[in-house]
Structure formats: structure tokens, C-alpha cells
Amino acid sequence: MNYFNNNQGHDAVMAQGFMSKVYGWMAGGLGLTAMTSFLISPYNNPKLFMMLFGSGFGPVILLAFIQIGIVFYFWHSWQKLSYSTMSALYIAYSVLTGVILTPVVFSYTAASVFSTFAITAGMFAAMALYGSITKSDLSKMSNVLFMGLIGLVIANVCNMFFQSAGFNLMIACVGVGIFSLLIAYDMQKLKKLSRELVASPEDIAKISLLGAMMLYLDVVNLFLYLLRIFGQRRK
Questions:
Q1: CA separation for the pair 16, 8 (Å, rounded)
Q2: Which of 70-79, 145-154, 156-165 has the weakest average pLDDT?
Q3: Mean pLDDT of 117-133
């Protein structure tokens, strides 16, 4: 199936509101994650919180593996999936993220979480705007960004053993840089796609979900790394 047509793509996609769907799903996923985390927090539902996290990291590891499975299935099987199935997978992933992040987020003060989210929103807006208007070809950064992500994973695993505060701060700063650039990179890719994409309404809706997932992951990871830098731990 041909999804690209340089002559007719812009009008076709703009008629479908491609970027509006991307932003809508991204915002909806972030809202669902925040709501889930709030509802099962130790302050709102201490029994459920203790049931999930009171016996060690077993449940979190299990949920993380389920998340990984959802992402791989989502990305590699989207052409075969229906829009409703993809929507359900995206919603499930957003909820699971909220569950997993609950003990992390609520180890920081509410004020620092809100201020960090405000910083994240501002950085997202700035980098998304940059990715949308820049004339530079950001696709040249793809290999560097990929290697940076691999390096982040390795560094985080190493720091689980070293437990170095200084190394943790350095990782956080690098993570902020990588995911800030990824927002600009992904936004440029989506804007280019919105000018060239021609497909059926359902395929456009499905591809908008793929774009929403990309930006959702960028924002969540940027928030978490910023939280390491600006977050204040509860006493």
C-alpha cells in the first residue's frame, strides 16, 4: 500500500487532521498515565499500593516486561492490527506506565513533580517548534541518537551497582539532552510525513497513533530525567 504522494499528500492529510490526532493521543496518554499514578498512590489507595509494591520489585519487573511486549507488538504488527486494537494497546501501555512510575514519582515532593512537569512541557514545546520549523535535516542525527540511547541503558544499569550520585546526575543531564533532541527529530519526521502521507482514514488514524507513541515516550523519558535533576526527595 502506498502511503506517500508528494503532490496530493498535504491536502489529504490536513483534511484528516493528522497532527491533531497525534497531539490528541499523546496528551490523552500522558493524562491517563498521570491519573493512574495518582489513583494508586500511597495517599489515595495505600492498600493497592502496598499490594503492588510492598513485596519488592517482582510486580514492577513483570509489568515492565508486559510493557516491552506491548511496544514490540505495537510497532511491528501495526499494519495487521485494527485501529481499535492499536488504541487499546496504547491505552494499556499508558496505564501500565502510570502504575510503574507511581513509586518513583511519589518518592519526590508534589511541588517538585509539578514544577518538573512544567519544565518538561516548556522544553517539549520549544523542541517541537524547533523540529517543525528548522531547515536542517535532523535525520542525520539518527545514528548518534540511537547510540546515545544504548549508552544511556548501559550507564543506568552500571549505576544500579555503583550507586554514584555524581554519575546519576551526569546520566540525567545526558538523558535530557538525548530526549530533547529526539523530540525535535521525531517532530520533523512527523511533519514531513504529514506533507507526504496519503492513505485511507483508518490507516491515517493508525499512523497517528504511532506518532503519538513516539512523542509520548520522548516526553515521559524527558520528564523522568529532569526529575532526577530538579526533583526533591520526600523526607
A1: 13
A2: 156-165
A3: 95
Report the candidate in 191, 49, 147 with the shortest Cα–Cα distance to residue 107: 49
In whole angstroms, what is the distance from residue 43 CA to residue 24 CA?
29
Rounded to the nearest 5°, which phi and psi values hold at 107? Answer: -85, -5
User: Is the C-alpha dihedral spanning 66, 72, 75, 79 positive or negative?
Assistant: negative
Q: What is the mean pLDDT of residues 183-195?
A: 88
Domain ranges, ordered by start, for the chain: 9-230
Phi, psi of 57 (to 5 degrees): -95, 5
Instruction: Please tell me the pTM assigned to this model.
Output: 0.89
CA distance 209 to 214: 9
Tell me the CB-side half-sphere exposure of residue 95, using CA atoms within 13 A. 8
Tell me the per-residue pLDDT of 7-32, one tens digit each, with 9 for 90 and over. Answer: 444 444 453 578 889 999 999 999 99
pLDDT of residue 198: 58
Query: By C-alpha distance, which of 24, 49, 29 is closest to 38?
Result: 49
Q: State the pLDDT at residue 172.
A: 94
CA–CA gap between residue 203 and residue 196 (Å, rounded): 14
